[in-house]
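Regression test case RT-17, inverse folding.

Input:
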């Protein structure tokens, strides 16, 4: 760099120097103005986090009622992250479905050069009441979306332009629910890979798995699952050592139950994460080769104490309001020893065995709303993703768009992976609905 600068005229160097100083000074003033505004907001505690001279960024703690209908029952602090692009810029509110411990830019925020407020879901991460006030009954979609509405009300004092909501997977579900309960909070919603499950064992999941890909690939998947179960006496001792090395504990489930769950989960995970059919080991492959592939695609860690406890809030929501999926056992008659054939094993695992009562009325209402009333929604799904089976289907009644990305899985169904025609259609809708011009 020093060698190159020798060839830059002195006048040009001075201009470069003062330009850098002006940009840095502008950022400082910008941040000071923002902090003044943040200080004026009730219920918000903030601290600046490293932004390396780019957009000012802050970790927020936002005071929320445990029960929005009865604030006197207590409160908790909800974590969020703010990235500031400008008071005159659009604002993207990211509706996370789980915890969020670090700040990260979403592609929609980059596309719009927008402010971003990334909100950790209630009862996940650190966004939960203390043990004395913790009560599962307040983990509802009504309460979670009321959290988002409160944040919207607060930050509209700073950002008065267009608002867009977005989220991925369970966060995408939250995007849909937020728009359902508060249709006027945002101008456009962009849920990614977001299912709407209508029961505890949504049959559309089975239908997808039984028809995805080619006949040959599905046959290879089933044969591999059966081979694993037949070789359990060789595999379980290896999994025991694998668990010990990975410090995985199994007290909510036994190791053998976790193994069988992992085998049943294999077909779901195979399509969700876009595994390669050509890499499925044949029945004459070595045990090590089979085990490596099994662990890569589904494995047992998801059924360990750590993961079950980590996802307990998710399982509570699935079992009480949001629905989920189960595992077909009929193809494995005579091969399951630790799990029942009937009823089908559920993919919901509450670590404390908390009894759950599912009420699917809200899901049916939200589903009907997506088909008849939900306008300005941009649904992004992966065509080979298992969760696309229960995504809201296209409707000609509403002014919304559906994008199914060919060959893309749960992790790859993104704006950046759209084909040219999809990207043009997506950008045009954003411009029309927000009244802005994309760069």
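Golden output:
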């Amino acid at each position: 760099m020093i060698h190159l600068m020798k060839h830059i005229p002195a006048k040009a160097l001075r201009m470069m120097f003062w330009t850098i100083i002006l940009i840095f000074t502008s950022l400082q003033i910008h941040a000071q103005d923002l902090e003044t505004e943040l200080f004026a907001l009730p219920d918000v505690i903030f601290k600046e986090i490293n932004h390396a001279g780019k957009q000012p960024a802050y970790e927020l703690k936002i005071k929320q009622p445990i029960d929005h209908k009865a604030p006197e029952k207590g409160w908790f602090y909800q974590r969020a992250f703010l990235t500031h692009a400008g008071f005159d810029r659009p604002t993207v509110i990211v509706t996370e479905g789980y915890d969020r411990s670090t700040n990260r830019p979403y592609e929609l925020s980059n596309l719009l050069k927008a402010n971003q407020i990334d909100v950790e879901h209630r009862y996940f991460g650190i966004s939960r009441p203390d043990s004395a006030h913790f009560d599962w009954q307040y983990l509802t979609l009504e309460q979670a979306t009321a959290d988002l509405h409160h944040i919207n009300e607060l930050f509209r004092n700073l950002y008065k332009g267009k608002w867009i909501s977005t989220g991925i997977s369970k966060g995408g579900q939250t995007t849909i629910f937020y728009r359902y309960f508060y249709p006027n909070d945002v101008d456009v919603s962009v849920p990614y890979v977001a299912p709407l499950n209508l029961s505890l064992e949504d049959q559309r999941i089975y239908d997808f798995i039984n028809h995805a890909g080619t006949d040959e690939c599905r046959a290879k998947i089933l044969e591999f699952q059966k081979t694993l179960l037949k070789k359990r006496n060789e595999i379980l001792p290896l999994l025991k050592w694998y668990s010990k090395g990975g410090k995985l504990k199994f007290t909510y489930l036994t190791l053998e139950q976790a193994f069988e769950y992992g085998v049943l989960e294999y077909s779901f995970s195979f399509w969700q994460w876009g595994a390669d059919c050509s890499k499925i080991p044949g029945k004459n492959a070595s045990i090590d080769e089979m085990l490596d592939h099994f662990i890569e695609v589904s494995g047992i860690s998801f059924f360990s104490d750590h993961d079950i406890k980590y996802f307990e809030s998710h399982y509570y929501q699935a079992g009480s309001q949001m629905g989920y999926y189960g595992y077909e056992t009929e193809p494995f008659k005579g091969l399951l020893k630790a799990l029942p054939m009937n009823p089908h094993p559920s993919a919901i695992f509450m670590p404390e065995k908390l009894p759950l009562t599912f009420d699917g009325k809200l899901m049916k209402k939200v589903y009907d709303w997506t088909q008849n009333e939900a306008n300005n929604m941009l649904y992004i799904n992966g065509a080979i993703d298992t969760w696309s089976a229960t995504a809201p289907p296209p409707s000609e009644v509403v002014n919304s768009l559906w994008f199914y990305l060919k060959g893309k899985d749960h992790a790859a169904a993104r704006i950046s992976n759209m084909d040219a025609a999809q990207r043009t259609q997506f950008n045009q809708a954003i411009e029309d609905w927000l009244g802005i011009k994309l760069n």
